[in-house]
């Protein structure tokens, strides 16, 4: 309880201090290894819809990119992204590519670009292959 309160307080302070910077978070602790594209989480897009507390308090997301050990089992169980991406609050997890949209091999990070710079162009594999040939 006290911890949750602290998290909310921290969030309030952080928001004051760094209002302008809400980078997209690339989460790639397991995706590449599993043959999926890295996940791009558009932080600002979500932030304008929900208070910090919803995710960093109630849903238990720690303030650390890649620091939550999120995997699909937990998501399907309704934890983390799965708390909302259930076809009710937001579109459901069948839409693999909407989350797994990153450029392959992008490491876990907070990126201060717009999401577009991180999202793979169609056919990244073909592009990589032709680059290799030149
Ligand atoms: C709402 C967002 C979201 C959707 C939709 C989604 N995923 Fe994921 N997935 C994640 C996140 C977040 C992780 C953790 C990423 C990491 O650390 O690499 C993950 C991890 C994975 C992993 C690696 C770890 C594990 O659990 O095995 C696989 C494989 C995976 N997803 C497959 C899928 C498939 C297949 C679909 C569609 C049926 C899907 N995902 C849809 C968010 C999503
Ligand atoms: C819809 C859910 C959601 C909301 C709302 C949200 N966040 Fe996040 N936040 C996340 C996720 C997901 C991550 C990445 C966690 C991971 O990779 O496991 C994250 C990561 C962070 C990080 C860590 C970035 C780093 O450097 O590693 C900070 C700081 C943060 N959020 C602050 C905030 C603040 C402040 C607010 C409110 C203004 C907020 N978040 C609102 C989901 C959310
Ligand atoms: C608190 C609820 C909530 C949580 C938690 C949440 N999302 Fe979302 N997300 C939403 C809503 C609502 C939308 C908008 C859905 C719509 O437009 O139909 C959305 C949209 C998105 C989009 C599309 C953004 C765009 O530009 O259209 C992506 C990608 C996404 N979420 C990824 C994730 C990932 C990855 C996680 C977990 C790390 C996550 N979300 C966790 C509520 C949430």
| Whole-angstrom Rg | 16 Å
Count of discrete domains: 1
Low-confidence stretches: 12-21, 124-134
Order of helices and strands: HEEHHHHEH
Q: Name the CATH architecture.
A: Alpha-Beta Complex
Structural class: mainly alpha
Q: How much helix, percentage-wise, in residues?
A: 25-40%
Which sequence of strands runs across the widest sheet?
2-1-3
Question: What is the CA-CA span between the terminal residues?
Answer: 58 Å
Write out the CATH superfamily name: Cytochrome C3
Largest sheet: 3 strands, antiparallel
Task: Please describe the topology of this protein.
Blueprint: H1 2-17, E1 24-27, E2 39-41, H2 43-47, H3 52-58, H4 72-76, H5 96-99, E3 109-111, H6 124-133
Antiparallel strand pairs: 1-2, 1-3
Helix pairs in contact: 1-3
Bound molecules: heme C (HEC) (3 copies).
Describe it.
There is one protein chain. The protein is globular and about 40 Å long. It contains 6 helices and 3 strands; from the N terminus they run H-E-E-H-H-H-H-E-H. The longest helix is centred in the first third of the chain and has 16 residues, at 2-17. The protein is mainly α and 134 residues long. One heme C is lined by residues 11, 14-15, 25, 27, 41, 43, 46-47, 50, 52, 54-56, 61, 63-68, 70, 110.
Keywords for this structure?
single chain; 134 residues; mainly alpha; Cytochrome C3; three-stranded antiparallel sheet; 6 helices; 3 strands; globular; disordered C terminus; binds heme C
Give a concise summary.
This protein is mainly alpha-helical.
């Amino acid at each position: 309880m006290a911890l949750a309160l602290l998290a909310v307080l921290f969030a309030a302070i952080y928001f004051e201090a760094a209002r302008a910077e809400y980078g997209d978070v690339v989460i790639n602790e397991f995706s590449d290894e599993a043959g999926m594209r890295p996940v791009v989480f558009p932080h600002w897009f979500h932030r304008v819809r929900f208070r910090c507390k919803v995710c960093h308090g109630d849903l238990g997301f720690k303030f650390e990119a890649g620091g939550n050990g999120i995997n699909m089992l937990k998501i399907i169980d309704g934890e983390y992204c799965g708390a909302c991406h259930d076809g009710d609050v937001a579109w459901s997890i069948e839409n693999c590519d909407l989350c797994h949209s990153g450029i392959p091999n992008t490491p876990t990070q907070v990126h201060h670009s717009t999401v577009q710079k991180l999202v793979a162009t169609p056919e990244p594999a073909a592009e990589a292959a032709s680059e290799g040939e030149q």
